[in-house]
Amino acid sequence: MEAERIDGRTANQLRPLACSHNILNRAHGSASWSQGDTKVLAAVYGPKAGTKKNENPEKACIEIIWKPKTGQIGKLEKEYEMILKRTLQSICVLTINPNTTTSVIVQVVNDDGAVSFMVKNLSHNSVVSGGFGLLYKDNQGSNPSTPNFKKDGGFILPPPCAALVDAGIPLKHLAVAICCCLTESEYVMLDPTKLEEQKMKAFAYLVFPNSILSVLPEGALKVKGEPMEHGIITSVTQGAMSVDNYLNCLERGRAASTKMSAFLRRSLQPQIPGDSSKAE
Amino acid sequence: MGLPDAPGDLSSEVEVDAFRRLFPLRFYERHLTESIRPDARPLGRARDTTIALGAVASADGSALAKIGSTTMLAAIKMEVMTPSLELLDEGCIAIDFHMPPICSPIVRPGRPAEAVPVVSKQLSDTISRHGHYMLTYGSSGMINLKELSLVSGKAAWMAYLDIYCLDADGALFDAALLSAVAAFSHSPDLLENCPCLAVQIPAVSLNDDGKIVVVSEENGRKLDEDSVNKEKRKLTLKSIPFSLTCILHKNYILADPTAEEESIMETLVTVVLDSASQLVSLYKPGGPVLAYTSAVQDCVALTRQRVKELQKILDEANSGIEVD
Predict the structure, then answer these.
(1) Closest alpha carbon to A206 in A172, A170, A171, A182
(2) Which residue of A58, A86, A89 is the best one to mutate when testing the B interface, meaning the one whose CB has the most B CBs within 10 A?
């Protein structure tokens, strides 16, 4: 029952990933992420003083601006902005800089399927690297509950995460996004291209937290018997599928997210100087 | 009140209200440890739901749905249009969700609320088929758009569904979906296996210029002979979607949150199941709490229960109309 994919990938294979940081020199943090032909660019500015009208001034606020490749901004973009904002708010440590606004601007450069997810990885990345006063922890010892946990999450909700990493915004952990789709023969495939997207019966877009490399013993990180990285941060589905198929997608998604986390960790690695603190 | 150690005199009552405003999270957590919420509901129970069909007399189908205080008014108007070149034998459903300032103190005129595009998009994903990928596999949406076609290539129905939020007190998507489904299902004969929805599709006929015109009811007998769609006066709803929004907070799952609960505990999960038990949507837009498989399964189980309740309420509302 192996479905043949046009570009010869297997069902569980992701497209080749490429990520780069610090590409825009005015932005406080920036990253570019490409997965196959889909390419997204994210930039992070902030924190700036003051929050918007209806936001809680005791916490930092994140503002997302999503720019599609063509066309005007409509409901779809607003919805993406809202989802991204909530996802990033759950990742960032909001109590460190209260009453500030961080802007994340996302530009879709090329859309070949699975854009919304890439976007998350990217902005994450740019927030983490680059910017002001970075303190990198040692490779092994990142306790996820420490506020200044910046590197070594390796989670990268594609572009925005990468951009957040690049800007040096404190994060709890990073996040990885995966798109699973269901063909009509109940077969789950990961990371569809635009052509494949059109033939699918249903999709699930899932965002998982990054797997943690930690000095703490394994047991301390489990919640209800499941390791932390199995929890879903965000899930958006389209099309009808049975509950079992959805749970199946979750399983595949988790497996793929560990691979993505490893990639992100590797791509952030060369950015870190050998020692812990940077003398800038 | 839910606090067991609060004596009944006025001074402590004032204190409780102040406590609720100043420390809302602690107030709620104090209740959650006793497995109850401030409005005396157990954690898994939804608020009282009512549906009133035919609320807007001039519309082709309408319904007013209330879940607790959240009130939504849905109305459908049908109009003939020429179908698009790519989808020649399909009609169209245009869904519009409005949150006028009457619904909530946070919504001001001129600036649409943040929830509007989100609920709007979720509704259109659930109700109508969209995108090329749905074409081949049949609709996962409620309505088969091919039924809205009149003369292939020349005329098809366009259904304008407008949903107005009259009172926003949490769980907006649930109430909006319920009112939309009820408006479509405004039907005199509701069969069990095949719910027929008779939005009253007006009778139309082809006039001499080759245009479709609505035949008014006054022409009486002539109607049935000339009308193009005399056989197709009812829409069939395949499987009706119902939804439930839950809040995840630490280890608790609260079903059907009010606006106050939503603003304090920010992690929402909306599960939409249809009557064939297919998962139409599982929507969790971020939020500080992670959803593990056990939480997902619990939410789905709560939603299944809710689907049965809502199905019953909808059937009662429909049979109520029938009797009249």
Answers:
(1) A182
(2) A86
